[in-house]
């Protein structure tokens, strides 16, 4: 597939990050189509355009959005950005997007997303990705951009390839700063470490990243969870030390220079909207891998339990 190019792109999962990516790439001249199951959101985008606010200023991007992937048809690249807990269902409903030459890249949170996508289309057509960008939906068809930070794409086995370079060049030329990585697994772990500490803590407290790090007792909890995850990463063969892990986290909590410290985590937004979170794919993955390697993970276990307790409370409230 050395002559592969992302001429036609589908964003599978047009939530905050899917809209951020799709809107920026579309505005940058690429042929991008959004796919999402939220009909009110899709209708708003098709009627009024995708509206941006926050970093970069208020503007609107005309981009087609669909509830039914069959209406999009085959594409060259599927950017998977649905919640990790919905990946299997989303892929099963989006088979029309794929041909034998279609690649997929995941920019989802947590671990295991690429492996799940590979079960549907084969590992040779799956790329790994991550982004430090942050966004939230403020209304159907309206996305708030919290900053301007880089994204990364790479081959899951490691090394460089022409198709990754082609993808990154196309995204960067369309004003989505994207870099080819020769060790995308390490990059994914680095992003995970930021989510490990900030995502559940923000969800539990409803504080932004910068606010919660201003509470000494919470910062101890955040760093404890990150330190556990760094130890698990090392056991998994990922060369990532605790100092590097903490520096990644602190970068995410900055409130200027493109940092996302003024935003709540996506897990927090999920709970505020009565939805379950991705905690099983983020902190839960550390707990499972820790058990595999005999590494204690009490901070992450406590965070998983607390988030799941809130999810259960909301389920019971809805049932009353």
Would you kindly provide a written description of the structure presented here, covering whatever features stand out?
The chain is an alpha/beta fold and 320 residues long. The chain has 2 domains: 8-182, NAD(P)-binding Rossmann-like Domain (Rossmann fold); 186-319, N-(1-d-carboxylethyl)-l-norvaline Dehydrogenase, domain 2 (Orthogonal Bundle), CATH 1.10.1040. The protein has helices at 16-27, 39-48, 87-92, 113-121, 162-173, 184-205, 209-213, 216-235, 242-252, 266-272, 283-293, 298-319; strands at residues 8-12, 31-35, 50-54, 59-61, 65-66, 77-80, 103-106, 126-131, 135-139, 142-145, 151-155, 178-180. The strands form 2 sheets. It has an 8-stranded mixed β-sheet, sandwiched between helices. It has a 4-stranded mixed β-sheet with strand order 4-3-10-9. Helix 6 (184-205) runs parallel beside helix 10 and helix 8 crosses helix 9. The longest helix is centred in the middle third of the chain and has 22 residues, at 184-205. The mean pLDDT is 93.
């Amino acid at each position: 597939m050395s002559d592969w190019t992302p001429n036609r792109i589908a964003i599978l999962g047009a939530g905050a990050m899917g809209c951020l990516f799709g809107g920026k790439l579309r505005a940058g001249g690429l042929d991008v189509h959004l796919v999402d199951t939220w009909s009110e959101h899709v209708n708003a985008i098709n009627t009024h355009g995708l509206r941006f606010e926050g970093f970069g200023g208020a503007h609107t991007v005309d981009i087609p959005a669909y509830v039914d992937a069959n209406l999009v048809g085959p594409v060259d690249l599927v950017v998977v950005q649905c919640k990790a807990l919905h990946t299997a269902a989303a892929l099963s409903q989006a088979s029309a997007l794929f041909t034998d030459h279609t690649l997929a890249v995941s920019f989802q949170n947590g671990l295991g997303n690429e492996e799940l996508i590979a079960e549907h289309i084969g590992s040779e057509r799956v790329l790994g990705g991550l982004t430090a960008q942050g966004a939230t939906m403020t209304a159907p068809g309206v996305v708030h951009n919290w900053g301007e930070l880089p994204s990364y794409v790479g081959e899951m086995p490691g090394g460089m390839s022409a198709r990754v370079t082609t993808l990154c060049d196309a995204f960067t030329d369309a004003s989505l700063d994207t870099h080819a990585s020769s060790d995308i697994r390490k990059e994914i772990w680095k992003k995970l470490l930021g989510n490990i500490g900030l995502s559940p803590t923000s969800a539990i407290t409803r504080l932004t990243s910068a606010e919660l790090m201003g509470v000494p007792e919470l910062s101890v909890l955040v760093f404890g969870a990150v330190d556990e995850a760094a130890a698990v990463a090392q056991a998994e063969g990922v060369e990532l030390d605790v100092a590097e892990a903490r520096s990644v986290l602190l970068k995410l909590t900055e409130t200027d220079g493109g940092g996302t410290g003024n935003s709540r985590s996506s897990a927090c937004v999920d709970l505020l909207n009565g939805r379950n979170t991705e905690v099983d794919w983020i902190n839960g993955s550390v707990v499972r891998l820790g058990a595999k390697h005999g590494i204690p993970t009490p901070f992450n276990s406590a965070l998983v339990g607390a988030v799941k307790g809130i999810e259960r409370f909301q389920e019971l409230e809805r049932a009353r």
